Amino acid sequence: MSGRPSEHGELVFDVLRYATRLLAEGDESALLDMGFTPEQIRALETLTLKSLQRIGQLSAHFMDFRVDPTCFARVMRRIEQERADEALKDELLLAGAPIRMMHHYWGMTSRDCAERRRVLGIEAPVGRPSQADESTLEILWHLWHELAAIADERRRYLELAKRSELPLSAIWIAVEEWKGDSTVTRQGSESPGDTQPSRGQDARRVIALHR
């Protein structure tokens, strides 16, 4: 008989090593959840590494490995969402997103942003971010309204940066000031019940906040 365990035997060996680690950490409840009886848990305490390898070589299949497809699908969706989230962070940073913005959406600190910028090869911003002039603010104001159909506000900011070709540091300042106006809702439209002014009046009222 060959001393080399089969692929199934290697998996059994790895599972048993994991079980002995749980035992060493005192997590017997996890071992019970895995299907071991209390008597078998006690027996695990006596197994040497050589014994574990020998069990893996035996042909008896006492472990049943199955995949829960529904649970696995949920895990994969979570992984894909996290991957997309990380990609979005990078896109925003590359577009000039300020620390304040990254903290607002993800709780990122200045150190987090600095480390990620370094990985992306982005030079650290120096001094206060520049603010858009009045004509640019008016363009931004109308573009922000046009992009209201984008439900994810982070992606709405990113699209605004692409269309305006302005850094997000300047866009964030402008939009957050508009949000600070009590007559402007989060979506950038008039509060319910207010009379809707003309586009020019909209822009002039918001631009006045910057004076």
Description:
By secondary structure, the chain is mainly alpha-helical. It has three domains: 7-57, no CATH class; 69-120; 134-210, no CATH class. It is built from eleven helices and no strands. The protein is elongated, with a radius of gyration of 29 Å. Residues 182-211 have low confidence and may be disordered.
The count of domains is: 3
Radius of gyration (Å): 29 Å
Counting DSSP H or I runs of 4 or more residues, the number of helices is 11
**N-to-C SSE string, H for helix and E for strand:** HHHHHHHHHHH
Distance between the termini: 87 Å
Structural class by SSE content: mainly alpha
Poorly predicted segments: 182-211
Strand composition percent:
under 5%
Topology:
Blueprint: H1 7-24, H2 28-34, H3 38-44, H4 49-57, H5 69-94, H6 99-106, H7 110-120, H8 134-146, H9 153-164, H10 168-180, H11 199-207
Helix pairs in contact: 1-4, 8-9, 8-11
